[in-house]
Write a structure and sequence with these properties.
Mean pLDDT: 94
Shape: elongated
CATH class of the largest domain: Alpha Beta
Bound molecules: S-adenosylmethionine
């Protein structure tokens, strides 16, 4: 028998939170308006057992929370109605960790948000609050709300990415680009100048099987995970990881394809990116963040200007918007054939 107690609507919130604290609230069922025909409005609060001081009824028409129920819907009644507007509608699952941005306006609700998210994803172990990405190493600013385990293995497109989410970023918005890269490079020599933990190198090595990928990463923490991910994905015979600054370590004249998967100041590295391409020619994947009004003219002219300096020819193949980076600014990639 599924039980509920009936309480006047205006008393429902303190009763509900008391039941919640005492572990007597059945959180799988929804609070419903009672069909008692009185002027006063009553609510049925689902409970797990007898509750002293209340008449317990058998609830007839049961309404369960579905998996599809949004976080906001689940928090209805649990936090003040005016705060519901700030409840996030999206989050990121990385391995068994949930990453969520929580506005300051509902800072005091972070614990219940984390608890509710863990109820929605019982396979997850930790909930981490995200404050954005900073600096040249693209390090995330994050805070653990609940759980202690922050190192995890994320599976995407059958590739494994091990990382500590407190120290390493992983952008959900770059998924289509990671997939696109997984289809390019067969039998080629590729240089991945900003390799991170292997965001592009790993899928390319697993699927396209280039002859070799030289993967350069400056951040020692990311580099450590890059090495682990090479092993986890069994691509030791394809990827050669290098720890250091690609401005100094990019090899010259070796690549059929070069990936410049970094944003912010990528154009400062264009000389090295172009010089690594074989004299006989190759393809450049140049990323940058571009204001909407300069799409795609600015990245194209930056490539052309740098190529002109080096006496190389440029043929633009494709231009893609990867994701919105900030208001009015896009993360883009331009594919250019360099000869
Ligand atoms: C985080 S990745 C970019 C994200 C990637 N596009 C994705 O799919 O999420 C960029 C990497 O470039 C590295 N990096 C920055 N400057 C570098 C440099 N001069 N040489 C080598 N690596 C560099 C950063 O440490 C970072 O790991």
């Amino acid at each position: 028998m599924k039980r509920a107690i009936i309480v006047p609507a205006e008393e429902a919130e303190p009763v509900r939170s008391d039941l919640l604290q005492r572990g007597l609230l059945d959180k799988t069922r929804k609070i419903k308006v009672s069909n008692r025909h009185t002027v006063e409005k009553f609510l049925e609060i689902p409970v797990t057992g007898d509750v002293e001081g209340h008449t317990v009824i058998e609830q007839k028409e049961l309404e369960y929370y579905g998996k599809w129920e949004s976080l906001k819907e689940r928090l209805e009644g649990a936090i003040p109605a005016e705060e519901l507007a700030y409840v996030p509608s999206g989050w990121q699952l990385i391995g068994d960790v949930i990453i969520v941005s929580i506005p300051d306006e509902i800072d005091s609700r972070k614990a219940i948000i984390a608890k509710t998210l863990l109820e929605m994803y019982p396979g997850c172990k930790s909930v981490i609050r995200d404050f954005g990405i900073e600096g040249q190493f693209r390090e995330p600013k994050r805070q653990i709300i609940t759980g202690s385990q922050t190192e995890t293995i994320h599976r995407e497109n059958q590739c494994l990415f091990k990382m500590d989410v407190m120290r390493i970023m992983y952008s959900k918005g770059n998924l289509p680009e990671r997939k696109r890269m997984s289809m390019l490079g067969k039998d080629e020599v590729v240089v991945d100048m900003f390799a991170g933990i292997g965001y592009f190198s790993i899928p390319m090595a697993v699927y396209a099987k280039p002859e070799k990928i030289v993967s350069i990463e400056i951040n020692p923490v990311s580099y450590g995970y890059l090495r682990e991910n090479i092993q986890l994905n069994h691509v030791e015979d394809i990827i050669v990881p290098i720890n250091g600054d690609c401005a100094k370590l990019t090899p010259e004249g070796v690549a059929d394809r070069v990936i410049m998967g970094y944003v912010g100041s990528t154009h400062h590295y264009l000389e090295q990116g172009l010089m690594t391409i074989k004299k006989s020619g190759g393809v450049l994947h140049y990323h940058e963040t571009t204001p909407e009004e300069l799409l795609f003219e600015r990245p194209i002219s930056r490539i052309r200007d740098a190529a002109l300096e080096l006496g190389r020819e440029v043929g633009i193949q494709e231009c893609h918007r990867i994701k919105k980076y900030s208001p009015g600014v896009w993360h883009v990639v331009v594919d250019a054939e360099i000869t």
